[in-house]
TrEMBL record:
The lineage of its organism: Bacteria, Bacillati, Actinomycetota, Actinomycetes, Pseudonocardiales. This is Endoglucanase. Keywords: Carbohydrate metabolism, Cellulose degradation, Glycosidase, Hydrolase, Polysaccharide degradation, Signal. It catalyses: Endohydrolysis of (1->4)-beta-D-glucosidic linkages in cellulose, lichenin and cereal beta-D-glucans. Residues 1-24 form the signal peptide.
């Protein structure tokens, strides 16, 4: 499990339920359909039951016992309940339960709506005594919440003068219409394609759902409906993971770029798709935009995200927020200090911030940049490429975004060098709740070895990357990393409490040898210190010993150390680095072998745990392994495997669904999120483009999934519903995987834009605080220029002080040079030379335009 399930809490059931009239009804419906989940508490867990303010739930002796704080005014001031309970208009239900209380008191059992306007269906008051009794009543629903929508059952326990404990057991709501199990309400096609597109020059495969034993004729049509290619499918038979009988369609031979293609077999046709590199290039940036949306402690401005997604800053101590500027530890920890932990990214769909999730997410963004600088093309992440406030500060934008989280990780460091595991609301945040309207107190959980090593690893990695950008910041990071690593070694087994799951996921991790290896690898790559090298070589994870098809995630981080040791220059023996790279190719081959037998190819090992919480992130993390295998070997088969993984995530799956919001005709919309909650509140937005859904989870760990999907084949255990948090939540460490892979894939996709008709050569001589640059501009097109204007941006503090052979001007970091009357005419194949003197420091510009068109760099 990659995350812990948040409880869905309607903050104010209010008097609407208390005042709702009991609907007279006869006997319960004949259908023996149980609406309530975990009503017997036999597992020892309370989930999915939630508790409201002033109430603490605990399963004791097979009962759910609620400790209720006295002194409230109304019955609905203290609540326990369960959301996602389906009701149908006109159907009859029987609500029954066992209950007792330490001190006799009345309680109200109610059914109604979990979100505004909190309409009531039925309620009835009962008087409890210290002796357990059975209570029951029947009603007919006046509201319609089918398919585990916004229905709710709750017990109102407030309005009492003193503290009390109320215990319930065998809670049951029987009746209504029983839905079929294992059926996903999203319509699926029989011809499954990547709903977004295929890159020219790369394999193009689709899946046909068919029981036919013989090949079937397929036809590829363009946007006008004209046939442009055809062929025969290859039968593959039953696919256990999806439950489908499938054929494979390979239309790789067709390579004409265009939009609106469809693939048909008989009367069945696919969703439309493109043949173009453009969508994956957009996704590279949309997947990174997710992190700006998730920023805490700063306004999300319309100029970067549009009016729909803009919002005020959350958790900055502006009412009703209690703020993150002075956060104490949980009351039972009594740490004796508070921390200012403003900033960072909200981890997922709630308002929590977690070091172990934020650590791997920040690392993945930073590694994407470092990998591009070592073996790829970092220009795609240069300053000005992302829509963020820092887009003109001279620092690559990918580093700017990552720094928002890195700075938060530093703030989570305790005085003794350890790092607090997480910070979030004291209780689960209501759904929906805009961040700036969250009124709950914020609390730090205990420090942990795992969180401390996350801080050490990421701070060391970031120190390496900022060394040439901001030496002071780099030194600060390294100091924090060294301090954290030393603290972790002094506290090697301080594990996160697995029961610390109120208000936020526990994220417990019983094994931290992988985090020690990761942190030591980062510190060694940054410093070269022999002590860190000793720890690296002595680790049981050394030389990718822990890399398998299971991949890596927040709780299994050893491969992150392997990736750094394989990419960043270090003093390890060449044979050991080669062994690490070879291990990536070996595991990549295992993925490709398994994928060849799948109906819907994805680098995912479901042999042990099935499809788990956040399965899409596992698919993409394994795609990163394939991508690195390509980087290390150059073998095209690994590149093709990466794109197969993206095809699965973007629609070539048994649900005909793109799990990335905004990408494809049937894409995820209703992510489990407190702000992107349009399904619950039409004034709020849907998930923004580039947001990744967690994906199929065969464990079905939320009420919506359990009610809708029981009996589902593994790859079909998903539904696009805001309440289905175990399958449809978002998380920073899932989107970081999408960002890494889509960035890599965009780099490998070539270009679908017109060929450049210009080339610019830039050379500069430098001194302490200045430079003299020579610029050669060449017309590489077929038509003569009558005039030209050169444009570029300085990456540092440089300023043009004097120029020649052009009219020079500068606004901020943006520089233009316009042709003179005597050198504006430039024929094909001809060049013109210009230049300037300047002040300031910084590296060479990384992109140039002539008359607004991008130029090749000589």
């Amino acid at each position: 499990m990659r995350s812990q399930p948040p409880r869905l809490l309607a903050a104010t059931l209010l008097a609407v339920l208390a005042a709702s009239s009991l609907q007279a009804a006869g006997a319960a419906a004949a259908a023996d359909y149980e609406r309530v989940l975990n009503g017997t508490f036999d597992s020892g867990a309370a989930d999915p039951w939630w508790s409201g303010a002033g109430v603490t739930n605990r399963v004791t002796g097979g009962e759910l016992c609620a400790a209720v704080t006295g002194g409230t005014t109304n019955p609905w001031d203290a609540l326990i309940g369960q959301n996602g309970v389906p009701f149908e208009t006109g159907e009859s239900y029987t609500f029954s339960f066992d209950a007792h209380a330490t001190t006799a008191q009345p309680i109200t059992a109610a059914a109604g709506e979990s979100v505004s306007p909190y309409r009531g269906i039925a309620s009835q008051q009962f008087t409890l005594s210290p002796t357990k009794q059975r209570f029951t009543f029947t009603f007919t629903s006046t509201l319609d919440f089918p398919d585990a929508g916004n229905g709710q059952v709750a017990f109102q326990l407030g309005g009492q003068p003193a503290d009390n404990t109320v215990c319930v057991d065998n809670v049951s709501v029987i009746g209504g219409v029983k839905p079929p199990g294992g059926v996903n309400p999203n319509p699926a096609k029989k011809v499954q394609v990547d709903l977004v597109g295929y890159v020219p020059g790369l394999p193009k495969r689709a899946t046909l759902v068919s029981t036919a034993a013989t090949p079937q004729t397929w036809t590829l049509k363009n946007s006008a409906g004209a046939a442009v290619a055809s062929g025969q499918s290859t039968p593959k038979g039953a696919d256990a993971t999806s439950g489908d009988s499938v054929h494979q369609i390979d239309f790789s031979s067709f390579d004409t770029a265009g939009t609106g293609y469809t693939l048909s077999v008989g009367e069945d046709s696919s969703f439309p798709f493109d043949i173009s590199a453009d969508p994956i290039k957009r996704l590279r940036y949309d997947s990174l935009a997710f992190f700006y949306h998730q920023r805490s402690g700063t306004p999300i401005e319309a100029q970067y995200v549009g009016d729909e997604y803009s919002r005020p800053a959350g958790h900055i101590n502006v009412a009703p927020n209690q703020g993150d500027d002075n956060v104490p530890c949980r009351a039972d920890l009594a740490c004796g200090y508070t921390l200012d932990v403003r900033g960072g990214w909200y981890d997922a769909g709630d308002h929590g911030k977690y070091v172990v999730n934020g650590g791997i997410a920040a690392w993945q963004l930073l590694n994407s940049y470092e990998r591009a600088t070592r073996v790829g093309d970092a220009s795609a992440f240069r300053d000005g490429t992302l829509a963020i406030p820092e887009k003109s500060n001279g620092v690559p934008d990918l580093l700017d975004e990552a720094r928002w989280e890195v700075d938060f990780l530093l703030k989570m460091q305790a005085p003794d060098g350890m790092a607090h595991h997480k910070i979030h609301d004291a209780n689960w945040t209501a759904l929906p709740t805009r961040p700036e309207l969250d009124d709950q107190p914020r609390r730090l959980s205990a420090t942990s070895t795992a969180a401390t090593l996350n801080l050490a690893a990421v701070a060391a990695q970031a120190s390496r990357l900022w060394k040439g950008i901001d030496a002071t910041y780099s030194a600060t990071l390294l100091t924090a990393a060294r301090k954290a690593y030393a603290a972790a070694k002094a506290n090697p087994a301080k594990l996160a409490d697995p029961d610390d799951g109120t208000g936020g996921g526990a994220y417990s991790d019983s094994t931290v040898s992988d985090e020690f290896y990761w942190a030591a690898s980062e510190l060694y790559a940054t410093t070269g210190d022999s002590a860190y090298r000793t720890d690296v070589a002595a680790s049981p994870h050394y030389k990718a010993a822990g890399l398998t098809r299971a991949g890596f995630y927040w709780g299994g981080t050893a491969p992150l150390g392997d990736i750094t040791l394989a990419l960043a220059p270090n003093g390890l023996p060449a044979a050991d680095v080669t062994a690490i790279k070879s291990a990536f190719a070996t595991v990549a081959d295992q993925h490709l072998t398994a994928m060849a037998g799948m109906g819907y190819a994805a680098p995912y090992d479901n042999s042990t745990d099935g499809y788990v919480w956040g399965s899409n992130s596992a698919v993409l993390n394994n795609a990163q392994v394939l991508a690195l295998a390509h980087d290390f070997t150059g073998a095209a088969k690994y590149r093709d495997g990466v794109f197969e993984a993206l095809h699965y995530v973007l629609g070539r799956n048994p649900l005909s669904t793109s799990y990335v919001a905004g990408y494809g005709d049937q894409a995820m919309r209703n992510a489990h999120h407190r702000f992107w909650a349009n399904q619950n509140d039409p004034t709020l937005p849907i998930a923004p483009p580039g947001s990744l859904s967690g994906g199929p989870n065969s464990a079905l760990q939320d009420p919506v999934a359990q009610r809708l999907l029981t009996g589902c084949p593994q790859q079909k255990c998903w539904v696009d519903d805001i309440g289905a948090y175990s399958v449809n939540e978002v998380a920073v460490n899932w989107n970081s995987a999408l960002a890494w892979v889509s960035g890599w894939a965009a780099e490998k996709s070539g270009t679908s834009t017109p060929k450049s008709d210009c080339e610019v050569g830039f050379t500069a001589g430098r001194w302490t605080d200045g430079l003299s640059a020579q610029v050669k501009i060449t017309n590489t097109g077929t038509a003569a220029w009558t005039s030209w204007q050169l444009g570029f941006a300085f990456p540092g503090t440089q300023k043009v002080t004097a120029g020649w052979s052009a009219t020079w001007s500068q606004a901020g970091r943006d520089v233009t040079a316009a042709s003179m009357p005597w050198n504006g005419q430039v024929g094909p194949g001809k060049s013109v030379h210009i230049g300037f003197n300047g002040s300031g420091t910084g590296t060479d510009p990384t992109a140039f335009t002539i008359n607004g068109k991008a130029c090749k760099i000589a």
